[in-house]
Amino acid sequence: MHNLLESLTQMLITSAVKKKWFSKPVLPFRRYLGLYEEAFEMGVAIGYAHRDNLTGLVQLFSQAGREEELTIALCGMVQQHLSELPNAAGLLDLGMFREEERCKATVRTQLMLQTGANPSVEDWDKWADRNDIPLNTAFGNIGTVMSLGIALGGAFPQTAEQLWKASYDRTGKEHDISALRAAGLKLPAVMPDPISLAEYGEQMRVVVDAFVAENRPDVITPEQRQDNPGRIDAQPPPLTYADLKARHAAAKANK
């Protein structure tokens, strides 16, 4: 049985998988980077929608009984990323934090071994266009970054709101849109409003609820399931990240 992250990752990457004769399936590298960021933003929305019961959400992809431990670990990693990137301009900066540079460093080493010269930006672009990433590697990386997105949206909702708005707010960008139209880009006559974090979160809540109802009916009691089918929010006691930190701080103080 898949856990929540595995199920969502599979949903994301299925259409992008490239199958080859006599070899394992792969993911085009450029597509991988796009899905990596998409998974992060999806995680942010899911975590934000379940911020009042973050451990209940993490329970859907943690080892049995270790959801609190995993929640603290993920939130600590996100807090570290935020401290290392205090001027992130949006979700793209934070979501791709380290990953794109890690990939570029790996490719740089490969190309230098082949050519003996430091690769240019054009060399990187050509490599990214021509190469693939093993499916298992992509699957693991995408699931991991989705879990970090969940921690950001669930434990740091105000920061998530700010980064989401910075990423998708078009205020003041009308001139850019007009310039693109003038240059020949076919755009709708009236640009649709970008989806808000709260709206996307509610859309993803439906997906999570469906997963719970089908795969994890054990996370709520039969009585609660009858009143509110599939909702992990119905599982007592709801526990936010702040609640969790307070509980663990109290436990340490009492030792």
What would you note in describing this structure?
With about 260 residues, the protein is mainly α. The protein has one domain (about 5-255). Helices cover about 65% and strands about 0% of the residues. It has helices at about 5-15, 30-50, 55-60, 65-85, 90-95, 100-115, 120-130, 135-155, 155-170, 175-180, 195-215, 220-225, 240-255, and strands at about 25-30, 130-135. The protein has a two-stranded antiparallel sheet with strand order 1-2. α2 packs across α11. The longest helix is centred in the first third of the chain and has 21 residues, at about 30-50. The radius of gyration is 21 Å and the shape is globular. The two termini are about 40 Å apart. The mean pLDDT is about 85.
Key terms for this structure?
255 residues; mainly alpha; two-stranded antiparallel sheet; 2 strands
Strand content: under 5%
Sheet/helix structural class: mainly alpha
Q: Can you tell me the residue ranges where pLDDT is under 50 for at least 5 consecutive residues?
A: none
In helices, the fraction of residues equals 55-70%
* Helical run tally: 13
Q: What's the average pLDDT?
A: 84
Kindly provide the radius of gyration, computed on alpha-carbon positions and rounded to a whole number of angstroms: 21 Å
Tell me, briefly, the overall form. globular
Strand line-up across the major sheet: 1-2
Straight-line N-to-C gap: 38 Å
What's the domain count?
A: 1
> What's the oligomerization state?
single chain
Strand and helix map with partners:
Blueprint: H1 4-13, E1 26-28, H2 29-49, H3 54-58, H4 67-84, H5 91-95, H6 99-115, H7 121-130, E2 132-134, H8 135-155, H9 157-168, H10 174-182, H11 197-215, H12 222-227, H13 241-253
Antiparallel strand pairs: 1-2
